[in-house]
Structure formats: C-alpha cells, structure tokens
Write a structure and sequence with these properties.
The protein is mainly alpha-helical and 212 residues long. The chain folds into two domains: 82 residues, Cytochrome c-like domain (Cytochrome Bc1 Complex, Chain D, domain 2, Orthogonal Bundle), CATH 1.10.760.10; 88 residues, Cytochrome c-like domain (Cytochrome Bc1 Complex, Chain D, domain 2, Orthogonal Bundle), CATH 1.10.760.10. Helices cover 57% and strands 3% of the residues. The protein contains eleven helices and two strands, in the order ααααααααββααα. The protein has a two-stranded antiparallel ribbon with strand order 1-2. β1 and β2 form a beta hairpin. It starts with a helix and ends with a helix. The structure holds heme C (2 copies). The site of one heme C has 24 residues, from α8, β2, α9 and α10. One heme C (HEC) binds next to α3, α4 and α5.
Amino acid sequence: MLIVSTFALLASVKGMAAEENAETVSRRIGRGNPGIGQQQSEAGRCEGCHGADGNSSDAKIPNHAGQYAAYLIKQLGDFQSGARKHEIMTIMAEDLSTTDMADIGAYFAGRNIMNGDGSGDRQLGRNLFVNGDPARGILPCAGCHGENGKGGIAGNVVYPVIGGQRNVYLRAQLVNWKLGERSNSPGGVMNAEAKSLSDDEIEALVDYISGL
Ligand code: HEC
Ligand code: HEC
C-alpha cells in the first residue's frame, strides 16, 4: 500500500515537472511558427552568427538558445526604430516583418536553453546577483532575471535569459547600460542597475552569470 502510493506520488510529481517544462517552453516560444522561423533564420543568415542551435560561436555574439521570443522581438523592433543601436544588427533587422520576427523568435526560443559551465561561481559576483547592494540602490539581479538567470515574463515586461549568455557580450551590455549607450530597458531599470557598478564588479557578475 505504502509502496504503491509512493510510486503514485513519484509519478505525479514527475508528470507535473514535465508539464511545467512544456508550459515554460511554450511561454518562451509565444505565437510564432518555429518551422517557418527556422527557414527565415537560414534565409536571413541569422544562424551564421547566432548558431543553428542558438548558441553563437563567438563570445561577442549573443546566444538566442531558449531566449524568450517576446524579448528577441522587442530587441529587433528596437534595432529597427533606433532605440537600440548596433551597426550590424540595424542592417540585419531592417527588412524583417512583425511575422518574421515572431517566427524567428519562436525558432530560437524553442532550442535547448543556453547553459554555462558553472566555472564563474565566486563570492563577489554571486553576492551581487543574489542580494544586490541596497545601500547603492542596486536590486538583486535574481529578483528579475530568476535565480539561475533563466528569465521570465511578468505582466508586459519580459526579463531576458542571461544565465549562460556569452561573456564578452554580457560585459559589453553592462558597460553600455552603465554609460547610457544602451537605454532601451523599461523605465531605464538597467541603466539604474549598472550605473554604480565598478569594473571589478562587472567582471565578477559576467563570470558568474555566463557560468549559470
Ligand atoms: C554578422 C553577424 C550577425 C548576423 C548575421 C546576425 N546577427 Fe544578431 N547580433 C549580432 C551581434 C554582434 C549582436 C550583439 C549586438 C550588441 O552588442 O548590441 C547581435 C544581437 C542580436 C539580438 C539582440 C540579442 C539580445 O540578447 O539582446 C537579436 C534579437 C538578434 N541579434 C537577432 C538576429 C536575427 C533575427 C538575425 C537574422 C535576421 C541576426 N541577428 C543576424 C550579430 C549578428
Ligand atoms: C527590476 C528588474 C531588473 C533587475 C533588478 C535587473 N534587470 Fe537586467 N534587465 C531587466 C529587463 C526588463 C531587461 C530587458 C531590457 C530590454 O528590454 O531591452 C534586462 C536586460 C538585461 C541584460 C541584457 C540582456 C541581453 O541579452 O542583452 C543584462 C546583461 C542584464 N539585464 C543584467 C542584469 C544584471 C547583471 C542585474 C543585476 C546587477 C540585473 N540585470 C538586474 C530587468 C532587470
């Protein structure tokens, strides 16, 4: 009797975990068509830089593997409008329609999520990530990006996956937020987060986050 109910419990817990996973993945993918997105990504040469599985081969180029489609769509719109500036990506995004963006976003969102190798886990980076620094008004990164940096959606805001993101890319973004060269986050939240981070703190955060 006891054994049967233990098995039943295990089976239901496993079933729940699988459902949650599928639900998380479908939230990441959104409404686009991943099959068409794959063709568009090939045709648009996106995967030449971002990788067919969404993992880039160059630490300056971001991974898209498992990234929220809604976040990718927002960035592509921001490249088109000039709210986010980058020489290459402005050109790459130029001719994409809203449907193309949703489909390509869905394709990358559906790949196995990016993961680091855990090698950057040191005190300074972990502490800032988990606790922030209330004295300087720095909120915990984990509070928005999730405890493993795997992102989420709350209301209209999409918190991108950053855990396992490429390190040179992450450093560039944090420096750009700090200097105000990137300023497309809702309410300027990322500029406020980054403005008082020292170079050492940025380095420690990059090591920690890229390893998640
Ligand atoms: C020649 C290389 C190259 C190609 C081709 C390319 N990208 Fe990019 N992409 C980059 C680089 C480099 C960045 C980082 C920009 C920055 O540092 O702000 C980037 C950034 C992005 C971002 C922002 C990601 C984030 O995490 O904020 C999106 C979305 C994106 N690319 C989508 C695409 C799509 C869709 C295509 C195809 C239509 C494409 N890219 C083609 C190099 C490329
Ligand atoms: C209050 C919520 C919030 C907090 C706290 C927060 N972030 Fe963010 N972050 C965001 C949002 C929202 C975005 C997406 C901005 C956009 O849409 O362009 C973002 C974007 C980013 C990006 C760009 C990702 C990419 O692919 O280009 C990085 C890197 C980042 N955050 C790192 C951090 C770090 C490190 C911390 C802690 C020091 C932190 N964030 C704390 C909300 C937050």
